[in-house]
Amino acid sequence: MQAEGDESEVESEACHHLELRSKVPAWDAQQQCWSLDFKGRATMPSMHNFQLISADSSSSSSSSNNNNNNNNNNNNTIILQLGKIDKNVYTMDFCYPLSAFQAFAICLSSFATSAGLEP
């Protein structure tokens, strides 16, 4: 038999979630645009290209001073990225804690909101 306090502990332990956020792009002075470093995995620009990082890992960079924010953001582990490599061809990279199904579903949702906007 469990005490009342024990039930809330069990419920709170079972409710783990991961909060992801988009990685903030850096200004590329040479190309005069905002860009993300895909380490060669995305070779074409696209409105669908994105990188997601853990919101928990970004909290330490937001507490730093503004001059170091870009450097700290570049050190965050990318949990999921989608990048265009050819016409109608994209590459998806993901890691734990996302499953292949979760990563694919997130990537598909990026196409659902902008159908017909990009040739």
Briefly characterize the structure.
The chain is of the alpha+beta class and 119 residues long. The chain has a single domain, classed as Tubby Protein, Chain A (Alpha-Beta Barrel), CATH 3.20.90.10. It is 32% helix and 24% strand.
What can you tell me about this protein's structure?
The chain is 32% helix and 24% strand. Mean pLDDT is 77; it is low at 60-74. It has a single domain (19-112), classed as Alpha-Beta Barrel (Tubby Protein, Chain A), CATH 3.20.90. It is built from 4 helices and 6 strands; from the N terminus they run H-E-E-E-E-H-H-E-E-H. Strand 5 (78-86) and strand 6 form a beta hairpin. It is α+β, with helices and mostly antiparallel strands and 119 residues long. Strands 1-4-5-6 form a 4-stranded antiparallel sheet. A two-stranded antiparallel sheet has the order 2-3.
Features:
alpha+beta; single chain; two-stranded antiparallel sheet; Tubby Protein, Chain A; four-stranded antiparallel sheet; globular; 4 helices; 119 residues
Q: What structural class results from the helix and strand content? A: alpha+beta
Question: How many domains, in number, for the residues?
Answer: 1
What's the pLDDT, averaged over the residues?
77
Q: Output the CATH homologous superfamily.
A: Tubby Protein, Chain A
Q: What oligomeric assembly is this protein in?
A: single chain
The name of the CATH topology is Tubby Protein, Chain A
DSSP strand content: 15-25%
Strand order across the biggest sheet?
1-4-5-6
Radius of gyration: 18 Å
Helical run tally: 4
Q: Based on the coordinates given, report the CATH architecture.
A: Alpha-Beta Barrel
* Main beta sheet strand tally, sense and closure: 4 strands, antiparallel
Form type: globular
Helix/strand order, N-terminal first:
HEEEEHHEEH
Please estimate the helix content.
25-40%
Domain Tubby C-terminal: 15-113
Biased composition (Low complexity): 57-76
Region (Disordered): 54-76
Protein name: Tubby C-terminal domain-containing protein
